[in-house]
């Protein structure tokens, strides 16, 4: 087992990484002094695979857990589904020391975290991410939210978990597409903070795509270290943390315009990252060789290079509903090099539209 610490003062916690972490989770729970009643939130896919084993281990740790399943997929990340979970929590008798466990991917983690942050003004929350994407991104950093029909993640909070247990055993049932979507975020970490990681991904693409134990540990741990370092310096996104949004402005617009169904999050981030690279090139911040390196790695790892089912007008309108837009100005995270980015809010409309057009081009 490997551990990454997220330093946030009284809200600090650890990310535990490894294979077969249920015994470690049980030991952690037994030492925390939680109330006995607990709620495990999962989806209809993951819950059927891992719910029973988790409940058994939590019982061994002294809890009386119940499992609540939500529909698999992005539409479950809504106020309506959150209300159903609030009702279940009240009916179950959860109190302020009752833990909520998020067993699943990013949707489950965001939704369960939002419920945990809101129920009785905050109850203990433990992340158990089962997808590569959730392990390297959404389970770390304390951003929890649900979507609104006008935009993604617009209703939420900053609420840190008690711990994150990233168990690689869940990779055994992870579809190939879900591996690739996690890689969309891992590429992002290389672009924003670690040129060596970016290069390593290309040099070890075969091991990366099959999630060999060594490759999985290296890229998940390194991604978590980068995010932990950024979050420790800027928990509530007042400055530095904005760099974690690289690629996400266009990505969220693509997700919204395709009904959160055609592209999963990492695929949209991959396309959005290319869009940010195109903008950076148009502004003279990087050269075409750097753009080509981003495109080549994106393609090598099986991610899409362009989006279908969108228009430039719709994408451009959607970015103004993004939470990173303040005072009508979009805060773009742009490249100065691989491994170095900067936030700018002075990007002309024609440059953005041109980049979006390239994001919709095939071939």
Quick synopsis:
With 363 residues, this protein is α/β, with parallel strands linked by helices.
Helix content: 40-55%
Content-based structural category: alpha/beta
Distance N terminus to C terminus? Answer: 43 Å
Strand order, biggest sheet?
Answer: 1-2-9-6-5-3-4
Summed up, the helix count is 14
CA radius of gyration: 20 Å
Order of helices and strands: EEHEHEHEHEHEEEHHHHHHHHEEEEH
Strand content: 15-25%
Average pLDDT, to the nearest integer?
Answer: 95
- Coarse shape: globular
Uncertain stretches of 5 or more adjacent residues = none
Number of β-strand runs: 13
Major sheet size, sense and barrel closure: 7 strands, mixed
Domain 3-dehydroquinate synthase N-terminal: 69-180
Cofactor: Co(2+); Zn(2+); NAD(+)
Protein name: 3-dehydroquinate synthase
Domain 3-dehydroquinate synthase C-terminal: 182-325
């Amino acid at each position: 087992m490997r551990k990454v610490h997220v330093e946030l003062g009284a809200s600090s916690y650890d990310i535990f990484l490894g294979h077969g972490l249920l015994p470690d989770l049980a030991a952690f729970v037994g030492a925390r002094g939680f109330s006995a009643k607990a709620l495990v939130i999962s989806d209809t896919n993951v819950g059927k695979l891992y719910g029973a084993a988790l409940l058994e281990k939590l019982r061994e740790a002294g809890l009386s857990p119940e499992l609540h399943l939500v529909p698999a997929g992005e539409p479950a990340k809504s106020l309506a589904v959150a209300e159903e979970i609030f009702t279940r929590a009240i009916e179950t008798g959860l109190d302020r020391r009752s833990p909520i466990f998020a067993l699943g991917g990013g949707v489950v983690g965001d939704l369960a975290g939002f419920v945990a942050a809101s129920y009785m003004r905050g109850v203990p929350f433990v992340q158990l991410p089962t997808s590569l994407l959730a392990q390297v991104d959404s389970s770390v950093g304390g951003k929890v939210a649900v979507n609104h029909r006008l935009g993604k993640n617009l209703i939420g909070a900053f609420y840190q978990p008690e711990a994150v247990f990233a168990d690689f055993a869940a990779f055994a049932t992870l579809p190939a597409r879900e591996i690739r979507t996690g890689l969309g975020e891992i590429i992002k970490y290389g672009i924003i903070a670690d040129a060596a990681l970016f290069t390593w991904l290309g040099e070890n693409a075969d091991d990366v795509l099959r999630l060999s134990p060594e490759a999985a540990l290296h890229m998940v741990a390194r991604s978590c270290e980068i995010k932990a370092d950024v979050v420790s310096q800027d928990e509530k996104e007042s400055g530095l943390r904005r760099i974690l949004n690289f690629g996400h402005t266009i990505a969220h617009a693509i997700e919204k315009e395709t009904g959160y169904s055609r592209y999963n999050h990492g695929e949209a981030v991959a396309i959005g990252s290319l869009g940010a690279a195109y903008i950076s090139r148009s502004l003279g911040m990087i050269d075409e060789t750097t753009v080509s390196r981003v495109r080549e790695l994106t393609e090598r790892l099986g991610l899409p290079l362009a989006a279908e089912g969108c228009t430039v007008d719709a994408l451009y309108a959607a970015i103004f509903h993004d939470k990173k837009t303040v005072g009508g100005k979009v805060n773009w995270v742009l490249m100065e090099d691989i491994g170095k980015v900067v936030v700018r809010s002075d990007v002309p409309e024609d440059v953005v539209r041109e980049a979006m057009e390239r994001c919709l081009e095939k071939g």
